[in-house]
């Protein structure tokens, strides 16, 4: 008998329509989340054109990489670890990973015994390219505000976070761990999708706790879809975002979690300095009746020589469109963060971002649109027999 599979979005709509009894007819729910996941790194085995004794320093597109632990002495190749948060100015590990998955050529520079060895390489030419997330898919996260008078540089906002503003992270009711009874014995080895690539859960991640569980994940980058990952520039440096989807079996352990809606999921509001909790709101405040992408009125565009939105877009999604006279518009790299809506002086970008405890959200660091798309993709793979539970 074929399994009945629905996405987490489809299930939550049933519950809101007072059809929660239908959950007993469902076998699998595909849940997903997308957002900034700082604990992301990639392990590469990179062939070089020349042989050298041992790599002392390695750079990929200018991003500092960490050679080893295998020295690969005189083999003409090098093992490296690259952190998603490592960056050179506004280009970080997240942007590097996205470029590789897109098939772009990157520059490899190795320093050894006072000499520099270089190579131009694509992901297809890298035999080992594995992403490891040391802490991903936090069950719940936080909103951040600034209680002081001075704007603060922070990883939680593209711009300096000002008094009377807030940013937040977390996909709320569609997040996989929000919909599961979390047990590490059952999680280890469970198959998931990481940025579209089939991977596995290795166990609980770093900074895991009973109150704020998260997971450690690994997947092959060769099979990833560039849409689901990338860099995200903050005022404190470049970050990395990922998208994760997990199949959840509908059983008695998971049912009570699967029925929970945003209205009943806490979203703590913390002060950016010290991270102490100021108050506790709900995820419905930041996700109900909001826009997942900006509405763009291109006719308001003045085609400025310097476009502040192009400069500030965290994912570098705002680009010139030649057939519109060079005006800038967001492409598919748009993350729905909302920074454009509060930056353009001519109001080209309009977006409902919600608020938390009556403090307006001015930067969003999770993306439900990507998450819902991957949840749908996982559902289709299961139905087609391309993903075994």
UniProtKB/TrEMBL annotation:
Keywords: 4Fe-4S, Iron, Iron-sulfur, Metal-binding
A single GO molecular function term of this UniProt record: oxidoreductase activity
Domain annotation 4Fe-4S ferredoxin-type: ranges: 292-323, 326-354
Highest taxon of source: Archaea
UniProt cross-references to Pfam families, sorted A to Z: HcyBio (PF01837)
InterPro entries: 4Fe4S_Fe-S-bd, 4Fe4S_Fe_S_CS, Fe-S_Ferredoxin, HcyBio, Methan_mark_16
NCBIfam families given in the database record: methan_mark_16 (TIGR03287)
UniProt name for this protein: Methanogenesis marker 16 metalloprotein
Organism: Methanotorris formicicus Mc-S-70
Highest classification ranks of the organism: Archaea, Methanobacteriati, Methanobacteriota, Methanomada group, Methanococci
């Amino acid at each position: 008998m074929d399994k009945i599979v629905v996405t987490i979005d489809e299930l939550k709509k049933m519950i809101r329509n007072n059809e929660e009894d239908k959950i007993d007819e469902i076998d699998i729910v595909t849940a997903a989340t997308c957002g900034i996941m700082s604990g992301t790194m990639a392990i590469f085995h990179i062939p070089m054109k020349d042989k050298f004794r041992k790599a002392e320093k390695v750079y990929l597109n200018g991003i500092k990489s960490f050679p080893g632990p295998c020295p690969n002495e005189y083999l003409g190749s090098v093992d490296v670890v690259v952190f998603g948060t490592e960056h050179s100015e506004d280009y970080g590990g997240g942007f590097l990973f996205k470029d590789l998955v897109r098939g772009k050529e990157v520059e490899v520079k190795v320093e050894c015994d006072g000499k520099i060895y270089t190579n131009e390489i694509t992901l297809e030419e890298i035999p080992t390219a594995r992403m490891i997330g040391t802490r991903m898919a936090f069950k719940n996260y936080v909103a951040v505000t600034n209680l002081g008078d001075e704007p603060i540089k922070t990883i939680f906002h593209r711009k300096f976070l000002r008094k009377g503003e807030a940013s937040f992270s977390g996909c709320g009711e569609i997040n996989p761990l929000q919909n599961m009874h979390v047990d590490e014995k059952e999680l280890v080895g469970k198959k998931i999708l990481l940025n579209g690539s089939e991977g596995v859960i290795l166990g609980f991640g770093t900074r895991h706790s009973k109150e704020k569980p998260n997971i450690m994940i690994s997947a092959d980058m060769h099979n990833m879809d560039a849409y689901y990952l990338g860099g995200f520039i903050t005022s404190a440096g470049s970050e990395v975002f990922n998208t994760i989807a997990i199949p959840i079996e509908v059983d008695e352990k998971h049912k009570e979690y699967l029925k929970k809606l945003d209205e009943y999921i806490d979203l703590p509001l913390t002060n950016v300095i010290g991270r102490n909790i100021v108050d506790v709101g709900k995820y419905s405040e930041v996700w109900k009746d909001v826009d997942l992408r900006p509405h763009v009125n291109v006719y308001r565009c003045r085609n400025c020589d310097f476009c502040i939105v192009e400069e500030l877009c965290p994912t570098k999604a705002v680009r010139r469109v030649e057939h519109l006279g060079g005006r800038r518009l967001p492409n598919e790299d748009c993350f729905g963060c909302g920074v454009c809506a509060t930056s353009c002086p001519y109001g080209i970008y309009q977006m409902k971002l919600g608020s938390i405890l009556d403090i307006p959200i001015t930067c969003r660091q999770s993306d439900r649109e990507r998450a819902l798309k991957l949840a749908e993709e996982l559902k289709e793979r299961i139905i087609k027999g391309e993903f075994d539970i």
